[in-house]
Write a structure and sequence with these properties.
Layout (H helix, E strand, L loop, with lengths): L10 E3 L3 E2 L5 H15 L2 H4 L4 E9 L5 E9 L5 H13 L11 E9 L5
Parallel strand pairs: 1-5
Antiparallel strand pairs: 1-2, 3-4, 3-5
Helix pairs in contact: 1-3
Length: 114
């Protein structure tokens, strides 16, 4: 499998900037990842950090085998489990090739101070 050209997710959750914020699917995924973060101990402790996530997008746009390759939140397993679950549940654009394609992207979490 080659890396996909689906320019799909470059997320900054909390400050919420994305490379594809006009895509409803990406905006919905951002909200769900934001919720994961806001319900985590890391958010309560006002810790910022990032994850490198990987998944395969199947021919019909379904997520396969989402996982976290690296994370600065290793002590917050609930956050990592929630992020993985949301990546698995999300729907993605079908790969133009019609074949499964790998997606590796960063997700950055920054607490919003109110």
């Amino acid at each position: 499998m080659k890396a996909t050209s689906l320019g799909l997710i470059l997320l900054l959750v909390g400050g919420c900037a994305t490379s594809d914020s006009n895509n409803p699917g990406v905006a919905n995924l951002e909200r769900k990842l934001q919720q994961c973060y806001e319900e985590s101990d890391s958010y309560t402790q006002r810790r910022s950090g990032n994850m490198q996530v990987q998944l395969t997008i199947g021919p019909e746009g379904q997520a396969r085998d989402p996982r976290i390759l690296s994370s600065t939140f290793r002590l917050d397993r609930n956050l990592e489990a929630c992020v993985t679950g949301q990546l698995r549940a999300a729907s993605y654009p079908k790969p133009a090739s019609g074949k499964p394609e790998e997606l590796i992207k960063p997700v950055n979490f920054i607490p919003v101070i109110q």
